[in-house]
Amino acid sequence: MDPILPDHFLALSRLDGLLGSSAGAYDTSTLAAHDFDVDNRTGFMPPQAPPSRLPEEYEPWEIVLDAAIAEGLQLGDKPGITAAEMSRSESWRQRVRELPTIPILGLIRSETNLRRAHLVLAWTMHFYIHSLPPDVPVVIPLPITIPLFQISTHLQLPPVLTYADTVLYNWSLKTPSNKPTPALDNLQSNTLFTGTNDEQVFYLTSARMELRGVEALELMRSTMDEAFVGDDIALRRITTYLDRLATVIDDLQALLMTVRDGCDPSAFYNVIRPWFRGVDSDPSKRRWEFEGMETDPTWTYPAELSGPSAGQSSLIHALDMFLGVDEFSHAPTLTGHGQTTKKSAFLTRMQLYMPRHHRNFLNHLAANPRPLRALVVGGNPQLLGAYNKAVDALKRLRDRHMQIVTSYIIQPARRAAAEKRGEQVGLEDSQQLKGTGGTELAKFLKAVRDRTAAAVIES
């Protein structure tokens, strides 16, 4: 196994040891700090650029992904797609079907190589699926199915493209640097579906937010340390930390809005976003069939096959949990692959797409025996005001996110529907619009925003 990355939640491990003897339900002293894979310089992103290539024996996977990008494969449902483009896509898909089935034994000792392999195979699978004509059944070939299922089992991830594949592990430095934290303007995304600057900006916006969020994670750690002490000095320090947290969240909001500087809404909606689609957002409602599933009797059809979503960012989940906003969520009923099934709340579902170490971190945060809200309710007016300030900042971030989603998804969807039907599109059309995670987008985002606003504590 690779050396585990250092992280700045060392204090939590010390805290665990103390709590273990007096708060048995929270005895997580067996969780070493490295279990969270959260770095004090880069947060949920790795502190060094992820590997850009797998070991030599897995080069066939890298080559076929390179070919998809170099040949500029087009969406199978692209309006006006030419016969030459369709032929080029089919020739590439034939290469995928003819790939050797490569054992993954050479990967399982390296977490970073497993992540890279998941990225390569998931991107290849999405190229394969979404370059198909919309009336052709989706059958993922065996040379992709078997290693992707095996790797996904090791990583405890769904066999589909995730936020981690597009953002967390999909970057490098534009210019070599010895700085411990990458400069926000020195990042580039390595793998793109379209090769456009619009797509690059879209991923990098999230990556920069993750890096700016490192300070938020440090403030959470410091707050939890002081909450354990709980005296007047500790409460004053927590008040200062929450004031600062509000500033950091406002910085996240500002970074989010920079996506408008380089990513065109029409290009995103029509050219980039369709490559992300999972089963639950396929306009043709096709079931994905995986060749070779029968080779392992332990494999069952994946319950989760949504595409990458901002809802898979551990940073935003951590802010919700830390501030106690998640206490105001409710589990909806969602529909997937033509079947109505009862599923957990969307944000809980999205945790299944996160790296497992980050899920461990969120579980640890959720199990905190001294939650911040309880401390605030029994605290002084200054502490209450600082807490509400942080919650208000998070609500503003959600407001801005709704603005971005409206500009980049809802409005383009209305225009596309109007052009297709030749008539005016009403608000009800966007209310039913699905996100890449399979949610009814507008309704879900409003609910999350309202939930955040409801977390403000009245004085």
Automatic annotation (TrEMBL):
Keyword Nucleotide-binding set for record: no
- Which InterPro entries does this entry report, sorted A to Z? Indolamine_dOase, Trp/Indoleamine_2_3_dOase-like
Highest taxon above the source species: Eukaryota
Pfam families hit by this protein: IDO
Q: Which residues form a coiled coil?
A: none
The record's section on Gene3D superfamilies has: 1.20.58.480
Listed A to Z, the keywords are: Heme, Iron, Metal-binding
Q: Where does heme b bind?
A: 401
Transmembrane ranges, per UniProt, are: none
Listed under GO biological process in this entry are: 'de novo' NAD+ biosynthetic process from L-tryptophan; L-tryptophan catabolic process to kynurenine
The entry lists its GO molecular-function terms as: heme binding; indoleamine 2,3-dioxygenase activity; metal ion binding
Tell me what this protein is called.
Answer: Indoleamine 2,3-dioxygenase
State the organism named in the record: Favolaschia claudopus
